[in-house]
Amino acid sequence: MPQYPHWYCLIEKVAEEDRLTFCRFARQIRRRGYRQRFRKRWQTYYDVGPDKFWVIGYGKLDDPRDVDDVILINRAPKGDAYP
User: Fold this and answer.
1) Could you tell me if residue 1 is inside a domain?
2) DSSP assignments along the chain, one per residue
3) Is 47:78 a contact under the CB 8 Å cutoff?
4) 56, 71 in Cβ contact below 8 A?
5) Which of 22, 36, 68, 72 has the most Cβ atoms closer than 10 angstroms to its Cβ?
6) How far is CA 27 from each of CA 8, 19, 33, 79, rounded to the nearest angstrom?
7) 2 in a domain, yes or no?
8) What is the distance in angstroms between the CA of the first residue and the CA of the last residue of the chain?
């Protein structure tokens, strides 16, 4: 989506020794984040400094105790206007 600039980190590209950190951050996003609508869908966002982060999973609801479904973490500047 070029009209919505953002960056992402795929778990399959994360080094094995860093996957625990990836999962911990994904859990932090789900546990401590806030709900906000993006188009027709609700996402859980978590702000760190000038950026907001959110996770993408493949089927489970946003269960903060479970991050087994998370395949990537997205990052975008907080000030970007999203519909």
Assistant:
1) no
2) -TTS--EEEEGGGS-GGGHHHHHHHHHHHHHH-EEEEETTEEEEEEEETTEEEEEE-SS----TT--TT--EEEEEETTS---
3) yes
4) yes
5) 22
6) 16, 12, 10, 24
7) no
8) 13
Q: Tell whether 23 is covered by a domain.
A: yes
Using an 8 Å Cβ cutoff, are 8 and 71 in contact? no
Residue numbers of the domain that contains 72: 7-77
Q: What is residue 61's predicted lDDT score, i.e. its pLDDT?
A: 55
Spatial CA neighbour of 12 closest among 75, 73, 63: 73
Please, are residues 53 and 45 in contact by the beta-carbon 8 Å criterion? Answer: yes
pLDDT in tens, 2-55: 567 789 999 999 999 999 999 999 999 989 999 998 888 888 999 999 999 999
pTM: 0.82
User: Could you tell me if residue 58 is inside a domain?
Assistant: yes
Count of the separate structural domains present in the chain: 1
